[in-house]
Each structure stands twice: as structure tokens, then as C-alpha cells.
TrEMBL record:
PROSITE patterns noted in UniProt: TYR_RECOMBINASE (PS51898)
Protein name: Putative integrase
Residues of the signal peptide: none
Listed GO biological process terms: DNA integration; DNA recombination
This protein's record includes keyword DNA-binding: yes
Entry similarity comment: Belongs to the 'phage' integrase family.
CDD domains registered for this protein in UniProt: INT_ICEBs1_C_like
Any one Gene Ontology molecular-function term assigned to this protein's record: DNA binding
Species whose genome carries this gene: Lactococcus lactis subsp. cremoris (strain MG1363)
InterPro entries: DNA_brk_join_enz, Integrase-like_cat_sf, Integrase_catalytic, Integrase_recombinase_N, Tyrosine_recombinase_XerCD
Recorded superkingdom: Bacteria
Boundaries of every Tyr recombinase domain copy: 182-368
Key words of the record: DNA recombination, DNA-binding
A Pfam match: Phage_integrase
Length: 377
């Protein structure tokens, strides 16, 4: 304890102590005198004050611990998503909300956060993947959703360690049928021609749209978000994507997706041929190219429903035309890095899966051609 003289003639008695978090604190009392009796009285008051503060801190810690012990996984999930949905696009938030609902069908509302440990999560994911045959990519999505909530719980000091770090799901060995399905990620040239031809019978504008995607490798959202001002001569600036949830143009998927590509002549012809046009008095550089009847960009569900009408051995969806473009470029001998830049990939995994398969098929063709060569006759 030490004493400080005050300007008003009184005396401040001070003492330091260490709080429950290990930090050094200071308390003080002011008395009229600086005598032995006053010092004893000050010492008593200071230590009572310190005891009261420490008791209050301990009570606060106990209250927080009780609150944390009783908090449910659902409560933390709601707390996290109320912030998360303000930081992402509406479409991304919608996809995460779907995963959130799936998790809630597997984790009861009463489940405490403290009970969501690595064993708890692992048993859920193993059941879905190994017994109920959900796809590996879907399992990864659910695991990521668990991870985001639990990471948030750590930042709020509800948890000390994220149990997801101990959750490992080993990928199943692919069956022959599944391996063959991987080949269905893209269309061969002959298949693409037939799909475009068949779609032209169903709907001409959709036929032109999927042909354009096959020649550019654009994602569907990127394609329908193209505005007149994004095209200069034969160069297309892909600077956004159409968000079907907010019904508006938003930023691209990531920084790698914001790119410029050169359009082949056929793409420029498609834009000129596209049957749906704006009224003359409403034409502007802000106009979208691939519009539907309401002058709004095409809805993906409309295109996918039309693709279902085509008889094909492949599983047709809008994304297959993006993969088909990668296959076409591979056949043309374009380097992998150049393909990735054109389609806006920063992770080579998807590009490489198509690239490797096509080059494998090309190698087979080389052998077939070499076998046909007869150097003896």
C-alpha cells in the first residue's frame, strides 16, 4: 500500500492486486488523515474492496460458464447466420441456409453446443456418406457448414477448440459405373451438335444460349449477366453474375472470375441472331443480351427443364456446357493454364479432371492411328 497527498489536503491510499484474468489492477480510498490508525483503516477498506471486486469477477465468470454450458448448437447457428447472411450474396446465403436446414434435421433443437464433438459430427457424416450414399461433395458442404458455426463459437469463446479438425471422411473407392459417370461431365463434339440441334426444335433462343456457353465456357450466371456494354469489338468483359435469388447482377464468383476473353465469330453471330430483342426506345448499353419474355435474364430452371426434354445418355444441365468448352480447348491443344484463365478457375482440380480425361482419349486415338500405319507395304 502507498499514500498519495491530494491538493485538497486529504490522502489517497492505494493498493495493487491481480484480477481473475491475471491483469494488475489498482484500488484506492481517500481519508482525511495519514496516521497509523488511518493507515490500518485504509488497509481494511482496500482489502475489502479488492475482495468485493474479485468476488464480482468470479460471479461473472460463473454466470458466463453457466450460459455457455446451457447454450444450444441451434442458438449458436442462428447467431452466426444472422451475421453471415449480411456478408455474402443472396444466392450463397440461400445455399448455406439449405445446408443449415439439413443439419437441423440431424441435430435436435435441444442439443447443447458442448455435445457437438468430433464423434457426434463424424457419426452423422459417416451415416450420410457410407450408409445413405450422399455424395462426397455434399458431405464436404455439410462439414464446412459445421466448421463455420464452430469457428464462430471459438471467436465468441463458447468453445476452446474446434472439434471438426478431428473429423476425417475417407473417400469411397469409385465403382466402374461411377468412373463412367465422370466421363459424363462433358459432351463430345458429335453429342454437342445433336443437343444444340434438338434444343433448336424445342426453343431457338435456348439453343443459341447453350451454344454460346459451349464456345465461351461461361457459367450460366455469368452468361445471362452479359450486358451490351461488356462487349467491345470481339472482347467480352465478364464482370458479374446473375443472382437468381436477389434477381439482380452481382459481382463474379471470385477475383479470378472477373476476366476478359476473346469471342469467336460464331458468338458474335449468336448475339445478332438472338430472337428476343428490346423495344427500340429501350435499347441501351445496360441491356442484357440473353433475355427472357419479361426482358430479364434467363432463369436457370427454365433452361434446365428444357434440357431434360432432350434424349441423351448424358445428364444434361447448364454446367455441362462449361465442361464441354474445357474439353474442346483441350482437343485443340490449348495449355492447361490458358484454359484455366479463360474459364476463370483458380483451382486446377475441376479443369484438370476434364483435361486429363480428354488427353487420355486423345492418346488412345494416337495409338489407333499408329496401328493403322503399315510401313511394310
Amino acid at each position: 500500500m502507498w499514500v498519495e497527498d491530494l491538493p485538497n489536503g486529504k490522502y489517497k491510499y492505494c493498493e495493487r492486486y491481480t484480477d481473475t484474468k491475471g491483469k494488475t489492477r489498482k484500488v484506492s480510498v481517500t481519508l482525511d488523515k495519514n496516521s497509523s490508525r488511518a493507515q490500518n483503516e485504509a488497509s481494511r477498506l482496500l482489502y475489502n474492496k479488492i475482495d468485493a471486486k474479485l468476488e464480482k469477477e468470479k460471479q461473472k465468470i460463473e454466470d458466463e460458464q453457466n450460459k455457455i454450458a446451457s447454450i444450444t448448437f441451434w442458438e449458436v447457428q442462428d447467431e452466426y447466420f444472422s451475421i453471415y447472411e449480411e456478408t455474402v450474396k443472396a444466392k450463397t446465403a440461400s445455399l448455406r441456409d439449405t445446408a443449415k436446414k439439413k443439419i437441423r434435421s440431424l441435430v435436435s433443437e435441444e442439443t447443447l453446443l458442448s455435445d457437438v464433438n468430433s464423434v457426434f459430427i463424424l457419426e452423422i457424416l459417416e451415416k450420410l456418406y457410407y450408409k445413405e450414399n450422399y455424395s462426397y461433395s455434399y458431405i464436404k458442404t455439410l462439414k464446412a457448414s459445421f466448421n463455420m458455426v464452430l469457428d464462430y463459437a471459438i471467436s465468441k469463446e463458447y468453445l476452446a477448440v474446434n472439434p471438426i479438425s478431428n473429423v476425417k471422411i475417407k473417400k469411397k473407392v469409385l465403382t466402374l459405373e461411377q468412373r463412367e459417370k465422370k466421363k459424363e461431365k462433358y459432351l463430345e463434339r458429335s453429342e454437342l451438335k445433336q443437343v444444340i440441334k434438338d434444343m433448336a426444335v424445342i426453343d431457338k433462343s435456348t439453343s443459341l444460349l447453350i451454344e454460346f456457353m459451349s464456345l465461351t465456357g461461361l457459367r450460366f450466371g455469368e452468361c445471362v449477366a452479359i450486358q451490351s456494354k461488356n462487349i467491345e469489338n470481339n472482347v467480352l468483359h465478364i464482370n458479374g453474375t446473375w443472382d437468381s435469388v436477389s434477381n439482380s447482377k452481382t459481382t463474379t464468383k471470385n477475383i479470378y472470375s472477373d476476366r476478359k476473353i476473346t469471342l469467336p465469330k460464331r458468338c458474335l453471330q449468336i448475339i445478332d441472331e438472338y430472337p428476343l430483342k428490346y423495344p427500340k426506345d429501350k435499347i441501351s448499353k445496360d441491356n442484357y443480351i440473353f433475355i427472357y419474355k419479361n426482358n430479364k435474364p434467363y432463369n436457370i430452371s427454365v433452361v434446365n427443364s428444357r434440357l431434360k426434354k432432350i434424349n441423351s445418355s448424358k445428364n444434361l444441365s447448364t454446367h455441362i456446357f462449361r465442361h464441354t468448352h474445357i474439353a474442346l480447348l483441350t482437343e485443340l491443344g490449348i495449355p492447361l493454364k490458358s484454359i484455366m484463365e479463360r474459364v476463370g478457375h483458380n483451382n486446377p482440380q475441376t479443369t484438370l479432371s476434364i483435361y486429363s480425361h480428354v488427353t487420355e482419349e486423345m492418346s488412345k486415338n494416337i495409338i489407333e492411328k499408329l496401328n493403322e500405319i503399315d510401313l511394310l507395304n
